[in-house]
Specification:
5-stranded mixed sheet, single chain, alpha+beta, 36% helix
Length: 444
């Protein structure tokens, strides 16, 4: 784990250097699209950011000066499967965003979905060395956490302290400077397949860029789509992308659980393609313009022209009722939501004080999805859009951009992570632990 520690720490230092220079790019590498935003940081923008809308917009301290998207290539289930194709798509998005920003960018922070994320809850405690808690005490408390056996070919993506307790006073966000004797720390650790991170780093290096940070897109979507009260009281963000559906649970403004379902909007499109015997591009158009998951009596009579260019007049003039289209789409959407429900149950979501669920991501825009999700996931479901940040083009304010906007907020205000502290070299954790949210139910 020491190599990983150094790698993540180097990325954090690169991010700080990029922010001092004042410009950084964020890259959301998805299955259906690759989005790139160029952010500018300076003192005057921090003042003007107070004009933003949303709980975090006033603190953002940056302005979007370039934005671009391109159709993703070479990405399946949120992971890179064809390096050269993905590299070309990343270059296309980045060059368009740089052109709009009228400046070159050298550093990028990226997020991705998939990669089989696994969440762990860790706990550790130490005696305070002096009368007041120092950064060194926090580092020692983190090092005392019992680290999990991640298994082979796994890497830690996030390792965040989510709760501190000082002499039985729990719920402290930052105990530095407070006086006490015994410091306890709860951490959330998220691991992913190391090949996914390695491929992403290699792809970005091939594009002549330096990686200044990497994050889970489910985490990024949660930061941007959940309002402050939801992040504080407890809520789940369901980020429905093209090839994967990300899931993140927040409480007290920290992510405490994350997972991913290897299905998304492209699987719905593939079902339409097979069911109607049309190419994927035609199926995507039909889904976008006529799709839905709740059929009414009117839908039996609403006929949709499938169209086509095969040259066979009969084949190209076919029609299908909207009710039939909904009949193709609904089973797959139900399957995705049932899988999400199973992950929420496994995480112990019902133990949170609030069970708010927010749907975001491009695939969340299917008409009627919120009603269907309320029946499968629970009653407190709403559709979420990312917070507005300064300079964001109107075209990039929809649910499909939750990951990119959240990554911008992550770049500006990263939460403390394990590698931000001087962990004693002889104290790298190497023991076993309790799984997932059990610690939350027992300790909070």
């Amino acid at each position: 784990m020491t190599d990983l520690y150094r790698k993540q720490r180097a990325m954090r230092q690169t991010r700080r250097a990029a922010l001092q220079r004042g410009v950084i790019a964020v890259l959301d590498v998805g299955t259906s699209k690759i989005a790139c935003l160029v952010l500018r940081f300076d003192g005057s923008e921090r003042q003007r950011a107070a004009d933003g809308v949303g709980p975090m917009a006033g603190q953002s301290g940056f302005r979007v000066i370039g934005a671009a998207t391109t159709r993703s290539r070479g990405v399946r289930f949120g992971e890179i499967s064809a390096m050269q194709e993905t590299e070309r798509a990343v270059r296309t998005a980045l060059q368009a965003a740089q052109k709009m920003a009228q400046m070159r960018v050298d550093h990028v922070i990226a997020c991705f979905s998939g990669a089989n994320p696994r969440s762990y809850g860790l706990a550790g405690e130490v005696d305070v060395e002096d009368t007041a808690v120092s950064e060194r005490d926090i580092a020692r408390a983190m090092a005392a956490c019992e680290a999990p056996d991640l298994g082979t070919a796994r890497e830690v993506l996030h390792a965040q302290p989510v709760n501190f307790a000082l002499d039985h006073l729990s719920g402290l966000a930052d105990p530095r400077g407070q006086i006490g004797n015994r410091l306890a720390c709860d951490m959330h650790l998220l691991s992913v397949d190391d090949s996914a991170i390695a491929n992403l780093i290699h792809c970005i290096n091939r594009c002549d860029l330096e990686l200044a940070g990497v994050a889970s897109s489910g985490y990024a979507a949660g930061i941007s789509s959940l309002v402050e009260d939801e992040q504080e009281l407890g809520a789940a963000c369901i980020d429905m992308g093209g090839g994967a559906t990300g899931l993140s649970i927040f409480i007290r403004k920290h992510m405490i659980y994350a997972d991913s379902v290897r299905m998304g909007g492209e699987h719905v499109t593939a079902d339409i393609s097979k069911g109607l015997h049309v190419p994927m591009a035609t199926a995507e158009r039909i889904k976008t313009f006529y799709g839905g998951v709740v059929a009414t009596g009117v839908d039996d009579r609403e006929m949709i022209e499938i169209g086509g260019e095969t040259g066979d007049w009969e084949h190209d003039r076919r029609t299908v009722s909207r009710a039939e289209l909904i009949g193709i789409m609904r089973p797959r959407v139900e399957e995705i939501l049932e899988e999400v429900r199973a992950r929420l149950d496994a995480a112990g979501f019902e133990h949170l004080p609030s069970q708010q669920i927010v749907l975001t991501g491009g695939a969340s825009q299917i008409p009627g999805l919120d009603g269907l999700a309320a029946r499968i996931l629970g009653q407190q479901v709403r559709l979420g859009r990312p917070l507005r940040v300064q300079g964001l083009p109107q075209a990039a304010t929809g649910p499909a951009f939750s990951g990119a906007v959240g990554l911008s907020l992550f770049a500006a205000h990263p939460q403390d992570e394990w590698w931000d502290f001087e962990i004693p070299a002889d104290r790298y954790p190497a023991r076993s632990l309790r799984r997932a949210l059990r610690w939350f139910r027992e300790n909070w």
